[in-house]
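In response to reviewer comment 3 from the previous cycle, which asked for concrete evidence that the modeling workflow produces usable outputs, we include below a single protein chain processed end to end. The sequence was submitted unchanged, and the resulting structure tokens are shown without manual editing.
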Amino acid sequence: MNKELHPVSLVGAGPGDPELLTVRALKRIEAADVVLADDLIDARVLALVKGRLLRVGKRGGCISTDQGFIHALMLREARAGHRVVRLKGGDPFVFGRGGEEVTALRAAGLEVEVVSGLTSGIAGVAAVGIPVTDRRASPGVVLVTGHPGEGCAEPDWALLARCGLTLVVYMGVARCAHIVQQLQAAGLPAQTPAAVVHAAHTEHQRHAVGTLAELPELALRLGSPALLVIGAVAALADAVALAAPVRALALRG
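The workflow returned the following structure tokens.
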């Protein structure tokens, strides 16, 4: 008798706090037979898993699970008739390699469901009071990676320096000095407001506010995982952020 094959669910876990999960995400997590979880999923979210939990973390500069292995593992578990959840921080389609996984699963003949989550580039910076598209300061926002994959083109920092939009940089801490150098070389003023938001919506949340020129030092102080925010809206960050517990830092004397 053929096993019933369930759709594989790619679920966004949001930026940290389990209260920011969507209702559908919570239902999928609780109903899963097996959950393949990324490295940065908050422990409070992982505590909701009732089935088998498989950690398949991917971190820049660290030993990471091979993407091809993750594809094969999802296929094996789904073909065994299990309800499979691929659990990702933030949103599966925002720097989460969700598109690659959908392609691999569909090519193998499996049905896929994508459950969107709050991406940290919006919800994470909001935790410290930064509105990425406040019309008084910015007509839009660009979400960009600071760590392009092997063989992938680097963002056009010169173009981004001239776009007049808020820049929210994911995975940019290690290359922050390079990014700042590229932006300044293209004419973005050194005094442009900038911020670093570390581990938003978790117990380790911290943020620091300064200028573009100060950004590498700020990023070094707080470390990964963190978002870089560049643009006038960064100056709107709360002195003490909205989500507690928080330590707010500044380089101003």
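Confidence is low (pLDDT under 50) at residues 240-253. We consider this sufficient to address the reviewer's concern, and the full set will be provided in the supplementary archive.
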